[in-house]
Amino acid sequence: MNLKQLHYFKRLAEKQHYTEAASSLFITQPSLSHAIAELEKELGVMLFEKSGRNVRITHAGKLFLPYVDNALLELENGRLALRQMCGQQDDVISLAFIYTMGETVVPRLVDRFVHQPGNDNKRFCFYQGTTSALVEDMRADKYDMAICSLVADENEIEFLPLISQELVLVTSCQHPLAQQAKEDISLEEAIAYPFIFFSQKSGLSQFIDKMFMQKKLIPEIACYVEEDTEMVGLVSVNYGIAVMPRISTLSRSDLHVVRIRDPGPTRYIYLATRKDKMLSAAAQGFKKFVFTACQTLRF
Questions:
Q1: Whole-model pTM?
Q2: How far apart are CA 259 and CA 227, in angstroms?
Q3: Phi and psi at residue 294, in whole multiples of 5°?
Q4: pLDDT digits (tens, 9 = 90+) for 68-94
Q5: Packing angle of the helix pair 18-25, 29-43 (nearest 10 deg)
Q6: 99-110 pLDDT, tens per residue?
C-alpha cells in the first residue's frame, strides 16, 4: 500500500460516495475506484460495499480506519515538525472540525480567508472527527483550533459560539411520515418509529438526547452511527428515521426532510481553542477572521 491509497481510503470513508470523494480529491472516479480496489486486494478484505447509489464502509473498513487516521496524523505531525525546524511554521494553521462542517462551512471560510490581502501564503492542515475525539486531541496540542460542539465542564478548552445549526427530521421517501406531506412535525408524532442516533462520541448526541428528555419522550434506537453520511445512507433504506443537521447532502439524497416543530434550545457550533496555548500570528488572524465572517456568511 502507499500513502496516496491511504488518503483516498480516508476520504471515501468520510464521503461514502465515489463521485463526491473523487471530486474532493481532484481525481477521476475510475482512478479512485482502482486505488481502493488495489488496496482491498493487498489487504485481502472488502473495505466498502454498495448501499443504493452510495457506498458504505464495511466492518473491516471501520476496523482499519483508526489506524489509517493515526498513521496520517503522525506523518503530518512529522511534516509540521520539519517545517517548524526550517522556520516555516508561522504560516501554517492546523484546523480540526466535525464532519458536518467539512461540507460547506470550513471550505467557505478557508476560501474567503486565503483570498484576503496578505493571506495568500497561509497554509492549512485539516483534521476531521467527532467532538470528543477532537477535544481529546486538542488537549494533546495536536492542532491550533477546532470547530465543533460544546463539551460541558471542559476546563482546558475555551468554547466560543460561532453559528447556529438547524436540526431536522429525516425519513425515507417511502416512510409513513413522509406520506403526510407536512411542513413541520413534532417529535411526539415521530416517537412511534425507530430512530438512528449519533453515538456518544458525537457532540450532537447529548443535545438530541436533551430534546427528547425535555419532552419526556423515550425513543426506540435502531442503531448508533458516528457521522452524517452513514446516517443518510441508513435512513435512505428505511432502517430508521433520524434527527440531524440540515446539511447540503440532504438536498441531493433521496430523503424526506421536514422541520421539527418546537425543537427547543438552539443548537450552536463553537470554535474551540486551548486556554493555555499561544497561537501563532497566522492562527490568531484566522481566529479573528472566523468570528467576523460567521456574522455575515450564510451556511
A1: 0.66
A2: 20
A3: -70, -15
A4: 988 988 887 787 677 666 555 568 899
A5: 110
A6: 889 888 999 999
